[in-house]
């Protein structure tokens, strides 16, 4: 199996996860969680989003969160932005990277950001200008890249055309998002094998949701195609409020555990990540889908039952 030596993870739980929580999470708690995640060595964190506060009230404290987090050298702090107004707010708040959003399907784009794809792309051109002036990195995410909850299949030509328009306006980092967990591993490989040679020099990211238990298989398929950037969310929090049936992202600690077990480095301390995940479960007040928090890592060992120990001793004697 072809796997890279190292991958770069981006934690999106405090954005993709907290945006859909029914209760507003207090600013201090958000800050605490971001700081736990950076202390675990996560190299990129999508901290929050700069969107309309009435549309996503859970993240209305984006400025305050950015102002209060402890900036760890080695972690790049990003925020999601749909338009130039969001970009200006994000830059003023001191983000180091802007993650933009547009969908590959018209219906989801209209439901999510109240714009057609063409209108969104116009706004994203302005976002890039704001970011370039401020010297801030831009990563362009494409929602519903592998299927739309309203329209179903998204034709390759449609996805390719959105990628083309982003690249033409200067995008160098593109994230393909499986917003509602519709992708399967063979499809992921097919899409990447189509797009990667057509857009050389692009840094690709895969953003997965585990809605249908295919997130890690999809990531493995993308790694085999040469992708080394993955979004994930602590505990498996998450989901788009404007996509029916959306559920959590791939769980960060489960993915990190899987990668480490395969000898793929992430630079992340799994024990600290597990501690952060337990804290997030306390914060949201319910168990999260992550498996490793429950099972422990595969290096975990149990005491031998006495009856078995006795039989082994007899057999050896
Ligand atoms: N931050 C704060 N306010 C914003 C804003 C932003 N990024 N973008 C627009 N606004 C304000 C405008 O200033 C305007 O304010 P006013 O009424 O006081 O003049 C108002 O919102 C309407 O502006 P308009 O451009 O017409 O926006 P809209 O109402 O069509 O909403 C979005 C468009 C993109 C702002 C909104 O749909 C949104 O925030 N969506 C985010 C969805 C999301 O986060 N989804 C989950 C992640 S994938
Ligand atoms: Zn998502």
Overview of the molecule:
The chain has 317 residues and is α/β, with parallel strands linked by helices. The protein contains 13 helices and eight strands. Strands 1-2-3-4-5-6-7-8 form an eight-stranded parallel beta barrel, surrounded by six helices. Helix 8 links the parallel strand 6 and strand 7. The radius of gyration is 20 Å and the shape is globular. Bound molecules: coenzyme A and zinc ion. Zinc ion binds next to loops.
User: Helical element count?
Assistant: 13
How are the strands of the largest sheet arranged? 1-2-3-4-5-6-7-8
Classify the beta-strand content into a percent band: 5-15%
Tell the overall outline: globular
Q: Count the E strands.
A: 8
The SSE string, one letter per element, is EHHEHEHEHHEHEHEHEHHHH
Mean pLDDT: 97
Structural class: alpha/beta
């Amino acid at each position: 199996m072809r796997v890279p030596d190292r991958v770069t993870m981006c934690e999106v739980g405090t954005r993709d996860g907290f945006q859909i929580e029914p209760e507003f999470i207090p600013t201090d708690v958000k800050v605490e969680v971001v700081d736990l995640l950076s202390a675990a060595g996560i190299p990129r964190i999508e901290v929050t989003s700069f969107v309309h506060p009435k549309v996503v009230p859970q993240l209305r404290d984006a400025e305050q969160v950015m102002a209060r987090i402890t900036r760890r050298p080695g972690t790049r702090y990003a925020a999601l932005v749909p338009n130039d107004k969001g970009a200006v707010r994000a830059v003023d708040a001191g983000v180091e990277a802007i993650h933009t959003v547009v969908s590959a399907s018209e219906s989801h784009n209209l439901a999510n950001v109240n714009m057609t794809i063409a209108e969104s792309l116009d706004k994203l051109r302005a976002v890039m200008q704001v970011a370039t002036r401020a010297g801030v990195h831009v990563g362009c995410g494409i929602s519903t890249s592998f299927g739309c909850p309203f329209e179903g299949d998204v034709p390759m030509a449609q996805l390719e055309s959105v990628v083309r328009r982003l690249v033409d306006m200067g995008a160098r980092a593109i994230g393909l998002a499986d917003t509602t967990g519709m992708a399967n591993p063979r499809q992921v490989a097919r899409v990447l094998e189509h797009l990667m040679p057509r857009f050389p020099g692009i840094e690709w990211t895969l953003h997965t949701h585990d809605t249908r238990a295919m997130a890690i298989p999809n990531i493995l398929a993308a790694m085999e195609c040469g992708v080394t950037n993955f979004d994930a969310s602590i505990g498996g929090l998450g989901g788009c409020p404007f996509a029916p049936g959306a559920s959590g992202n791939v769980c960060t600690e489960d993915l990190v555990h899987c990668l480490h077990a395969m000898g793929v480095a992430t630079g992340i301390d799994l024990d600290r990540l597990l501690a952060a995940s337990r804290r997030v479960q306390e914060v949201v007040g319910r168990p999260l889908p992550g498996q490793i928090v429950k099972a422990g890592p595969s290096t975990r060992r149990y005491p031998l039952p006495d009856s078995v120990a006795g039989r082994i001793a007899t057999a050896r004697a």
